[in-house]
Amino acid sequence: MIKHLSLKAYGKINLGLDVLGRRENGYHDVRMIMQTVGIFDRIDLLHKPAPGIQVETNLHYLPTNENNLVYKAARLLMDEFHITDGVTIRLRKFIPVAAGMAGGSSDAAAVLFGINKMFRLGLDTRELMERGVKIGADVPYCVLRGTALSEGIGEILTPLPPVPQCQVLIAKPSVSVSTRSVYENLHANELKPEQHPDIDRILEGIHRQDIYQIAENLGNILETVTIGTHPVIQEIKDQMLNLGAIGALMSGSGPTVFGLFTSPRAAQEAYEVFRYGDGARLARQVYLTNFFNQKENKS
Q1: 231 phi and psi, to 5 degrees?
Q2: Residue 138 known to be catalytic
Q3: Is 238 known to be catalytic?
Q4: pTM summary value
Q5: Which residue in the list 18, 41, 107, 138 is annotated as catalytic?
Q6: C-alpha dihedral sign at 66, 110, 61, 235
Q7: Model confidence over 48-84: pLDDT tens digits?
Q8: How far apart are CA 129 and CA 107, in angstroms?
Q9: At a CB cut-off of 8 Å and minimum separation 6, what does 208 contact?
Q10: Which member of 72, 110, 130, 228 lies 3.0 to 4.6 Å from 9 by CB, making a disulfide possible if both were Cys?
């Protein structure tokens, strides 16, 4: 029995996000290229002999009951395998919340990994992914991590070669976005063909290891909804491009924006503009990181 595990739950960005249609059950069929980045939440799992799940967080507004995905992840495995011992989950959030970076899903994925390891359940990555989709559509990808093509509702995943390394500037404005509202207001069938991102061109760039082809074809169909409501997203994109990014895009349903930089110096200067200069009026949270392609969650 492992008494204590320290885990990292990494955030993601979407290099491409297209919506193909809506199912009768309300879920959307998507085609996305997902990429892990080096921003992470920290999670400590502590075994306790008394039954029950206790969640502690560093953000007062996050739920600490079954409404938190980490609680749901622990409960899912502990119920399935009839675990009568308890666990304390200490969650320290650093990934922006409700920002299109799958922070909650990544936390859940890390807890699935941790509970599996702590109680020696013997589940492999594929088995954890199959259980993860019961918690959320992004959870299977967050178990897998790295670079991947995501299809279906997000649960059909094809691992891809790692994207060529570059600097990634991430900026989240102060606005809040409801993922459900964005999808409900997206009418993909009414959009022109050119409004849909060219996922195949991004895939080609990945296989060719051409970061410029990838950057030139970044696309997110959800921008057609979110930017109209929150024009600050476009302002951040434009600012990043003016500061030397080879491409900039909103991640997920937003409002987070990322820019790709091949020049570390330009990336650092852009970070300082958004952190301390004129760009600070646009973004509340700013990070400078890179792609993260390690598959296994190390404790």
Answers
A1: -60, -15
A2: yes
A3: no
A4: 0.93
A5: 138
A6: negative
A7: 999 999 999 999 999 999 999 999 999 999 999 999 9
A8: 14
A9: none
A10: 110
